[in-house]
Amino acid sequence: MVVSLLSTKLYIPPARADGVARPRLTQKLQDGLQQPGSFALLSCPAGFGKTTLLSEYASLHKGAVAWLSLDERDNDPIQFWPYLIAACQTVHSAVGEAASMLFQTPQPPPDDAVATILINDLAGLDHNLTLILDDYHTIQNEAIHSALVFLLEHLPEKLQVVVSTRIDPPWPLARFRVRNQLIELRAQDLRFTASEAATFLNRMMGLDLTAADVSALEARTEGWAAGLQLAALSMKGRSDIAGFVKAFTGSNVYISEYLVEEVLKRQPREVQEFLLQTSLLEPLNAELCEAITGCTDGQSMLLALYRANLFVVSLDDECKWFRYHHMFADLLQSRIQWSLPAEAIEVIHQRAADWYGQAGLIPEAIEHSLAAKDYDRVVKLVERIALPMILQAHVRTVERWLKAIPKERVEESPKINLAFAWLNLLRGSVNQISPFLVRLKTIFSGPGASDLGPSLQGEWLAVQSKWSSLQGKQEESRDLASQALQILPEEDFLVRSIVYVNLATTYEQMLDYNHAAEMFQMIVRNARAIGDSTFETLGISGQARMELMQGRLHLAFEIASEGIKRMEDSGKITPFGATLYGEIGQINYFWRRLDEAQKYLRQSISSSGHSGYSDPEIFNHVMLSRMAQMDDDWEAAALEVTKAHELAQRIPPAMIREELISQRVRVELAFGRLESAQAILQPEGFAFTDVFSFPDLAPGSAVTNPVGLLYNSALRILLLLAGLKKDQSNLKRGIELADIILSGELQCRHIPTALETLLLRSKMYATMGDDSRRLKDIAAALELAETEGFISVFVEEGRPIYEGLRAMSQHNSLGSTRLDYIQKILAAFPTSLRSTKETGKPIMSNFKVDKKVAELDAPLVVPLTHREVEVLQLIACGDSNQTIARKLVITVSAVKKHTGNIFGKLNVNSRTQAVARARLLQLLPTDR
User: Fold this and answer.
1) How many CB atoms lie within 10 A of CB 510?
2) Residue 644 needs a FRET pair 20 to 30 A away by CA distance; which of 101, 276, 658, 849 works?
3) How confident is the model at residue 352 (pLDDT cuts 50, 70, 90)?
4) Distance CA 508, CA 749 (A)
């Protein structure tokens, strides 16, 4: 089900031909918004003509204008953003296509995800676009406020934003003022001047007031347009105009209450009743008004009110849809509470619910049913659309409806309890689900369970299957899912699709990859049969990811590429498209096609929102960090992984948490921050104080990719500890752990992490001086990687692996590995390794060397950063700290810090020793 959007909210109110032109204000807006990066805020109380002014501005503006009229129902990101995107698409249809797909999944997107995509889309526009957000004061959601601030802080050059509101939004307005980005119009700006008041009262309202009377009214209303309008309506037909003006006094609130009553009293009884009864509706059309009031001339009545300037606003060019001025509606609704009994008001809401239900506007029907306290109808309607809306991320709205239903009605409805269960399961709130599971168990095991039918029985099994999977009971989850599929009717597509997805991931966790692949294919077939692109893409991405984890790069590339082509050809970029693009990006990374990798990772971000998660953007920064690392640019690597970590703090990732942890550890170790690296792994159960300890991992245990990444990170810390402390006791334990990890990774067939473990064990053997086993592990990694063409996993491990590969190629100890494959890997290492003078020294088991020389010639455990190499080169030239600081444009204290890092990494105590060790390690030219 797709919740329809009301096109009337996107309609630009037409400027009235007989209205009051306000060129001083429209020109101020026009001039201010010409400055790139600026936006306008119209902030003042109700009735000052904000909407009227903006409609005049829109009619005069030469560029494209998108309009969105906001109300209380938009106070939810899942409602707000689709409307804002739809407003932009009234001008540029392609804007926000990728962002729209974020709202087709169970979990809401990250706060600034939609804003980011819109910024990127709008930045590419050929023409300017002015976006007007009217009545923004109805928005109170912090997530929306935060995302709008993000948008305003990164405004594309072609976008101008205008916001009208009764109260200032909680934005950093002072900061925007300092930056000269904010154009403000407030009450003192919008109040009518004496000239504008005269035009309004005499020409527009049809009065014949003297200049003195106009001046008096303007002064007493303080130029408040609504007060002037109410006064004009009250004066019509009066003979003593001067007396009325003289008696006219009071504050805006009291004036409005008094004058609305005066206006209402002067209307015929049928008009008064019409106004009061229809004040509960927004928007209005003739058919709806007739259903509520029982009148037969709803269109004539609405047109008459509109032409009489009785606070009625047209929402379309044909004058079919209308709304009341919000201030007028508020006052009418206040009056109806004491002028009609509660039962009569509930009848109005019931009639509205009837009309909306028959029109297929189910959410609106639910709202009026709740207002009417017609909970029988609420339950029936919510049962009908709860799951489809949850799967489209309308979680907050559905939750509000469910919580509004009395407890006794909830207990009676299995469908409502199932909705509560799905609500919590699909958004990960497992702590909140127990009461509903207990209630459902009672319902489905009770005496009337057999009468509930196969749809409900199957859905209950599906919920139990999902719950069992989250608890790690995979066999139980599989059996329950299979039972659900046996009894669910074919037409229950949504529930069946959820079951297939859960069953596929369950089989995968059970290492039953053949059945998992069958389930992913079943998801795709079923989705294609009914044209559901979201579930089709989900099935394809799931299968591609599974093949990627097993190291089948070519098959994963083929599956994901076909999925992307189908998705792009259909023009339906679903949220799960981000996963497909990310998979292609990662495969290209493994092949060291870095330009292609970055291209697809960027596409992953632009279509991100896999269930509203932040994974694509975080993953992109992690991969960029790894790319910088391969080029020996550790400063860039640190910058990217910091961005990933900061984003993860705000929006925790769902699937790539361990990838981020692993890269953070690598970067911390590269900068010699051992304690920081250890602290990253401490919450995961690792300790490195006296004796190395780690979470229990029994021999023979399956080790999945996430688990393997954490244990490999621990091995990296052991390597550094062994290099710094010359203590190999923990390193021996690390090798034993690597044996267990590798066996478990191969059991899961998670090849990328198994390759990393092999190469780390090779480096540990090298540190222990066991060159035979060191080269044996490199050879095993080559044999495992050659068929699929892995390259980057070798390059990431730096000089020890480079020199091992070079020695193997020079001494013809390749085993079954082709020489051209090794040469391709060697050519991928950074220039800083390949451009140094080749010594040709064999690294073989029979290579004898003095122990002290071997210790000095041992490869660096922690590589120097780009900046440290620059400092080292200037130290070799004999430059002082002050000279180095001047040449590199840094502070002397920074030079001292870099020098200290260099000494620590080279294991030396002086500049002379540092230069000598660096030349021995070929970090500096030997002829200097």
Assistant:
1) 15
2) 101
3) very high
4) 11
Strands 129-134 and 159-165: parallel
Task: Calculate the alpha carbon distances from 94 to 97, 518, 566, 572, 612 in Å.
Answer: 6, 36, 19, 12, 21
Neighbours of 716 (CB within 10 A): 23
Q: How far is CA 406 from CA 234, 371, 401, 476, in A?
A: 46, 13, 10, 34
**Confidence bin at 759 (pLDDT 50/70/90):** very high
pLDDT in tens, 378-402: 999 998 888 888 776 677 788 889 8
Q: Quick check: 456 and 419 in contact, CB under 8 A?
A: no
Instruction: Name the residue among 664, 660, 631 with its Cα closest to residue 863.
Output: 631
Q: Would you say 495 and 459 are in contact if contact means Cβ atoms under 8 Å apart?
A: yes
My answer on whether omega of the bond before 283 falls inside 30° of 0, hence cis, is yes
What is the strand order of the sheet 284-285 is part of? 284-285, 321-324, 312-314
CA distance 230 to 339: 21
pLDDT given for residue 848 in this prediction: 33
pLDDT at position 855: 43
Across-strand partners of 285? Answer: 321
Asked whether the beta carbons of 148 and 138 are under 8 A apart, the reply is no
Q: How distant, in Å, are the alpha carbons of 25, 145, 187, 254 from that of 167? A: 19, 13, 11, 20
CB 489 within 8 A of CB 455: yes
**Least confident stretch, 75-89, 342-356, 418-432:** 418-432
Distance, CA of 21 to chain centre: 43
Q: Contact, 114 vs 99, CB < 8 A?
A: yes
Pull the structure tokens for residue 766: 């090298």
Residue type, 598: Q
Burial 423-462 (b: 16+ CB within 10 A, else e): bbbbbeeeeebeebbebbeebbeeeeeeebeeebbbbbbb
DSSP letters spanning 89-110? HTT-TTTTHHHHGGGGSSSPPP
Q: Compute the distance between CA of residue 149 and CA of residue 837 in angstroms, rounded to an integer.
A: 54
Best CA proximity match to 480, nearest among 451, 437, 513 = 437
Find, among 593, 415, 398, 388, the residue nearest to 493 by Cα. Answer: 388
Strand partners, 907: none
Provide Rg for the chain, Cα atoms. 35
Could you identify the residue written with the tokens 């021995």? 920
Rounded mean pLDDT of the chain? 83
Give DSSP secondary structure letters for 616-643.
HHHHHHHHHHHHHHHTT-HHHHHHHHHH
pTM of the model: 0.59
Q: What is the pLDDT of residues 144-193, one digit of tens each?
A: 898 899 889 888 888 899 999 988 888 988 888 878 889 999 877 888 88
Determine whether 910 is exposed, middle or buried from the number of CB atoms within 10 Å of its CB (0-12, 13-18, 19+).
Answer: exposed
Distance in angstroms between the alpha carbons of the first and the last residue of the chain: 74
